[in-house]
Design brief:
With 111 residues, the protein is mainly alpha-helical. The protein contains five helices and no strands.
Amino acid sequence: MERKNKHIKAAISILRENRRLIFALFVFIVFVDILLIKTNRDIVIFSLLLLYVIFIKNFQIKSKETFLLCIALLTVMSVDYLFTGASVSTEKGAVWLILFFGIAIIQQWRE
């Protein structure tokens, strides 16, 4: 049991050291979901949101970073709308924007 806890602590330490890389990877996954995956899966959206909330708790992600993510989502959604019109990817971008904006507001309120 002690050996298992040691491995978990080592893994958490490595994740904290690479916090920016993990955040960038998470943002990349969200953008891939918006732009490349043409189906809507609620389980994917809510599991990624839960993972983001866990990241907020463990990696001390500030609301400023979440609002910057919202601006990036708004930009991607706007450019996608200009090129494709009202499409599945534009709608998915809007959904992600609203959900992350809600998280950012709650996060700001709690800070």
